């Protein structure tokens, strides 16, 4: 941590600050530059955030600049081997293959879900998505089928063998959702719902943590650190677009974050081009781009009849369009040396 | 709702879309412009969002543009008189006076809180703030004193008579926090924590709803609609800065939102220049600006010793600086014809 | 400048970096923290930017963090007294009074401009604005009256005595516009048009520099530094709103920037709530807020008939609304101890 | 264009607005919804922007929403075949092959440029980049070698046969730069420098138009429309990252824009991952992603010794890293059916 002292500060003011730091048990490295005094704070302890806050209370402090990463356990500096998250018996996310999670935004009924599950499996998806509890911007919008939705998801799993990814919104729902889901999803709007993060840290199921709409990469990794440090090491990150000034797309898919995050953390990272664009005709090219950027998987909204969807019709792929996506993604995935999982298993079987 | 049809659409495709709309019971107004067909959807029903989603599933649809506000009850179009939120026996927020809520970011102990409460009351604050449950970006940061913090807040209220504003993070904590707090605060990161919103809709205590870091004004009012439509009409909005590209300040305080929101809703709006700037030396000028823009109140972080604060030392005012703030705000408040509450009561007593 | 070395760096890599720095003639302060090595670069020279760029080329460098401000002459650290910009014979911007610049977005003809000039003067404006050269997002929009517009502005000045503020877009137009204008305006889209900045550095007329739509405060001050270091010290900064995710207003007026910039630079700062909001009904409250935040002036669009304006009808005030604005701003300006200039002169005359 | 009337509007106010529209020669489609009146404006004329501005001046108007695209000639609705931009004798951008433009940020001298040109050609680049006139945020940074830099570029072209892409900043420099350059580049900060756009519309050389840091896709296409409608049809768009709240990367590369823009316009689109990330270790994955998203080319900063670069050392690739990039891009380009140009010519020769 570097503390920059104001040019106008007196020697007494500077000394008070140094005394504060040393009184808290940290070392100092004092450097008098041509224009101003700079104090390096030496030592690593968990109360460093608090010290930074307190230094901000001194009138003579211009700025406090952190040096070390505030996340530790999810950092590559802490763990050097890639985390591979096992889901169910057969899926390993982060293990060198691209996994595609596909399905409708929302579970709307048994038939549509099972039909979709069969189709996406046939096309090469290895996990099934579907929302039973839906966060809706408006109180008047559909809020999900709840427990009934979870049961339908379980039926689709039973029929297809695809593990289930589904969102949980409320810490009180975790025990129930955990019974059904193979991966518990934390939505973008809950990325900093810290009591929910702490609750998921206690489960034994993998967690998929979507990036918040206005979360920096550092905040995203700190949210992952909540889960990881709480005891659950099976965390999958999901880039799903951030909010910017551009309104021609629903969000701005930040693919820079994919290679960046893979250099900062050992956790796997997947990409959601459906929310990341909000337009079905952009989903396939951006799915290709996500895989080319190095993602460990994709999350894609597919609906048998987007024109009858209860949510997100604009961004849902038809069955036909999803088949095209899988073909194109498969080709790019091979080109970057990280094949789509279903292709790899075919290869192995063959 | 206006549906813009792609220029390349065939007459059959357009007719399918019209059929879809009328089949759902809506009227249509079809207008053939020079370049493209436009369909107005007539009628107001709660499933309009779903229709919009479904229309997005038609390949021939270019865009769907909403016309009506998606929030109803909190809109000025629904209720034309200003909502006045009564807190405790004496405070009325939105009733033509500026109320100042002041206190430390976090309850750190009995003495510091009671001392602060006495001081801010003496300077003219009419409510006391202090966090017992703290949302922290890092799992290693202080998470608040919890129930003990609530008890200390209650003691400070008993000694000073100031009603208490404190944050609740988890739906499971609502029954407890409700016993102590006079106003339940929803923090920026929880503005779209919909299960928490629904839980607060059931309490009988006023709710202060902070704007999310990347929430549009419309999303903020829809979050208020969750609480209002759920049965709790005592909602206070709080502008606390949004996240932008500018990093010289912690957030960008969006004062445009104050007059805008007051034109759109009948709910009172207050301003938090402490989080809105993140720098103690900007808090006073921006408090003045907030009141000049028409705010019904302010929320200000004050700490007896910012250099020992457990959080937010950079943005906390010392006692002396808070006294200055109150003097200056008082002067601006009179100039805009909405005096600070403590001045008004002095005037009445005198 | 602080150079943070990657944790994975070898001693040889670190030494290479130290050698690079010392070879360029800078001193170093090497600090071995618990987790990583940090190198402070000592000395202030104009090639520090280049050194930073080069250090970025070393694979072992994690980050380079500047400490000193990159602007020098416009910084309060360089010049400690406030700059007062004299315009014409009578106006002093930054001298402790609030100056209001008012007029139409665009010069549309002689009558409308002269009529507006008389009205705004009567209400208390002390400068007249009007565009002769207009930057238009679309090539099909009105591009301004050019030289004829300048002549009309000069006539309005002759009739009212109000100095003229008008925009220049092209370095080739500077000699002509300089003949007519009292203040040369650089628009938001040209804030980093460096050849235009250099050209204006050579004129003897004051320059009003609008903040770019996505310019940080630091970039804005560096743009001012171009003009100041080039020889023209009469620079007025103008906050006019930044681009954010919020689309309910045309821009987000960043009033935080007003007290922030006044603490960083000695140059005067004014606020443009017309562009900053894009909605005429928000202009007056935000003009009040701008003055309460500490601005040295305001820039307001006024049109005799906004419903016939060639541009910006949405944000132009009618004569009647401008009169109201001036009354309210006058009251707030007195409350913050920086009266509107026309009030002050009345007071002096009386 | 759709005009939404306020709910509070009287019939007289609505009629005034209708009269205004018809008086200007447009047709109207009036639709009385359940909650408010909506007026469709029928007809397409170049003064529609002005009408929109004027309608904003009516107090009873809530909003004006454009329907038609404001750009015409660059729209796919205007021209249905893809534009192929020919550069020099051999390069065709937008013709189904990926072209890679590579070279240093800045021309720093003859040797470094010629050396770089030979290397990038050998690796498969088909155009050479290098800045002779540099836009610099700080007046104290290197501003480029000017005419001497252009001459060096011409020498590198003579030795390698690679056409030259170089930036022009000032309308007064266009005649000179045009003599040397094969493609004239407009930088991000000049995207809305309208007088420069108009000047480039008159040249006979292709123009590469970088997207502005905070430019929407619509504004970008309108900037292209300035050049196209002014008579120069050889416009290449370049996505180079936008400014967002994320500071871990220099910009946020908006790859959504690639397939979006290709659906809206017939012009070719290339991607600049060097500026789009600002970090050399992210350039290669994002180059792969750009091609996977459908780009017609890439623009890459390469420097023989990034640790001695005068600018942008952080984002420049070494020769070795550029060779790796080309290999990987080549593989992805084949996978998406749009091979790198140098591969294609090898194939043809073979």
Task: Give a topology summary.
The structure is a homotetramer.
Chain A: E1 2-5, H1 11-23, E2 27-32, E3 37-42, H2 48-55, E4 61-65, E5 85-87, E6 91-93, E7 99-103, H3 110-123, E8 127-129, H4 147-160, E9 164-167, H5 174-180, E10 183-186, H6 194-201, E11 207-210, H7 217-229, E12 235-239, H8 257-264, E13 269-271, H9 273-277, H10 280-292, E14 297-301, H11 319-335, H12 341-349
How would you summarize what this structure contains?
The structure is a homotetramer of 350-residue chains. With 350 residues, chain A is α/β, with parallel strands linked by helices. Helices cover 37% and strands 17% of the residues of chain A.
